[in-house]
Amino acid sequence: MKKKIIVSSKDKKDWISFTRKMEGIGVKEIDLNQENIGVTKMPKLDLHGLSLADANTKAKKFIIESFDKGYRKLLIVTGKGSRSKSYDNPYLSDKFSILKYSLPEFINRDENLSSKISKITEADRKDGGDGAVYIFLKNTKKFTK
Fold it and tell me: Which of 48, 64, 65, 47 is nearest to 56 (CA)?
């Protein structure tokens, strides 16, 4: 049998007063969704067909803007290179995908970018596999310039 809890009249008044002033209290799920918008949505940048200089410039701008907006995970598609299927021809290089290898190096050498990034990993197959990278950004709330 449950024990009956007796509530004092002061507690009842306090509760009624509290519930009438609930304007500033939001729904927990909505607050969490707004806070985690940078985790759940993933902006994408496709660098196919760009020169190395153009790709680096676009990637830098994209990363900084995404960081400022509070995103935590980005997808950058570099492609595998125009000769990615060169294993059938021994006279062509299979390491032709310049952006795939140079983009992480460019980011790590740029102090402004590298200070905003926690890690860079190869993307999942559904997002481009070895022709794309995920960039995980640091939390803007904890970031100090």
Answer: 47
Closest CA to 131 of 122, 142, 118: 122
126-140, pLDDT tens digit by residue? Answer: 888 888 899 999 887
Angle, helix 52-68 to helix 98-109, in steps of 10 degrees? 50
Domain carrying residue 51? 38-137
Q: With respect to residue 125, please indicate whether it lies within any of the assigned structural domains.
A: yes
With tokens 């985690």, the residue in question is 36
- Asked if the structure places residue 28 within a domain, the reply is no
- For 99-115, the pLDDT digits (tens) are 778 888 999 999 989 89
Collapsing DSSP to helix, strand or coil, 94 comes out as coil
State pTM to two decimals: 0.62
CATH number of the CATH domain containing 118? 3.30.1370.110
